[in-house]
Specification:
Structural class: mainly beta
Strand content: 35-45%
Number of helices: 0
Number of strands: 34
Distance between the termini: 39 Å
Radius of gyration: 20 Å
Shape: globular
């Protein structure tokens, strides 16, 4: 089968001839087959549809599934809005107003710019904790900002000499929605005016976290190895002694006890844990398999969740030991929370479930 702008076409003779196979009138830009559970998934501008009978009938997906490969997902605090960054998808952003039950693709590309193709990858997203409708997104050499929960977007540039950069993580100040940090190939960049202007400190970074109780404290990870710490709100940074060997892919801070930090390796299996905001680290991967791509704590610090190449894992002892979450996605690329509801970014959409499920 192949995708078109006129629905789905099906061939039974190795492509010699084609017949309509549903979704007529839909703009279909990606078609995938999932051997388990044995279904075709068609990604359209109105969301994802699936067929279990080789295209005879199509149903719109629910239960938190959104079109395309999802690079990142973020959840508004105290609400039900989700924003997902998409890869190889026209628009680049998917938005859900109802906790992941339904989704709509948002066109975020600037019509005055040339992007070199029909799609743009959005690789990092984050809501402002103090302003639930303020959300930032990173796409290549741009940072985008929405003040209405992801419906419309304003474009800002880093205005540096680099091009082709890839944002890896975004974090927003807990009480000032105009202070935002972006980690990535443009370095660790900081804006204090809502994304209009940027300054760069640490070069080529992969992750960044902020202490929610003492926001002058931050950690960022260097692409080349090592963790850097700021004690003055990101104005200056110091390499933490003895961390040169760490190649970190993801970071998470316990919101109740911010001295507790979890870090995953960018290229190897394993998880590390620090109880002094990054000074010392020890392995903490009992029960963990595969490379971990995303980490998250519950709001009260009682639970931590890790997602990665081998599934979703849960810890109830502050990250010391882990157990696999049954019936969770087999592969996760990112994670967001809304209360006890967990949203996992995967290669076939956002999958939602109860984080406290046995």
């Amino acid at each position: 089968e192949r995708s078109t702008t006129f629905g789905i076409l099906r061939s039974r003779d190795a492509g010699a001839s084609w017949q309509p196979a549903g979704l007529v009138g839909e703009t279909v830009y990606q078609l995938s087959y999932l051997p388990d559970p044995g279904r075709f998934v068609a990604l359209t501008l109105r969301g994802a549809f699936y067929s279990t009978d080789l295209g005879g009938a199509w149903k719109r997906t629910g239960s938190g599934v959104v079109a395309s490969r999802v690079r990142a997902v973020a959840a508004a605090q105290g609400g039900s809005t989700l924003v997902a960054g998409l890869e190889h998808c026209p628009g680049g952003i998917a938005r859900s107003p109802d906790g992941g039950l339904t989704w709509q693709i948002q066109e975020i590309r600037d019509p005055s710019r040339y992007y070199g193709g029909t799609s743009t990858d959005v690789e990092a997203v984050a809501f402002a904790p103090s302003r639930p409708k303020r959300v930032y997104a990173g796409a290549g050499d741009e940072v985008l900002r929405s003040d209405n929960g992801g419906v419309t977007w304003t474009h800002f540039s880093f205005h540096d000499s680099l091009s082709g950069g890839h944002p890896a993580a975004i974090v927003v100040h807990p009480s000032n929605p105009n202070i935002v940090f972006v980690a990535g190939q443009h370095g660790l960049t900081r804006s204090r005016d809502g994304g209009r202007t940027w300054s760069t400190t640490v070069a080529d970074t992969t992750a960044v976290v902020i202490d929610p109780k003492r926001p002058e404290r931050l950690l960022t990870a260097s692409w080349y190895g090592g963790l850097w710490r700021s004690l003055d709100g990101g104005a200056t940074w110091t390499l933490i002694s003895g961390t040169d060997f760490l190649r970190v892919g993801a970071l998470a801070v316990d919101p109740k006890n911010p001295d507790l930090v979890l870090a995953s390796s960018a290229y190897e299996e394993g998880l590390l844990r620090s109880t002094d905001f990054g000074n010392h680290w020890a392995p903490s991967d009992v029960g963990i398999d595969g490379i971990i791509r995303g980490l998250s704590f519950s709001s009260n610090g009682s639970e931590a969740v890790a997602v990665g190449d081998s599934g979703v894992f849960r810890s109830t002892d502050h990250g010391r030991t882990w157990v696999r979450v049954p019936e969770a996605p087999a592969v996760g690329r990112g994670i967001a929370r809304q209360g006890t509801l967990l949203h996992v970014a995967t290669d076939v959409g956002v999958v939602s479930g109860n984080a406290n499920a046995p």
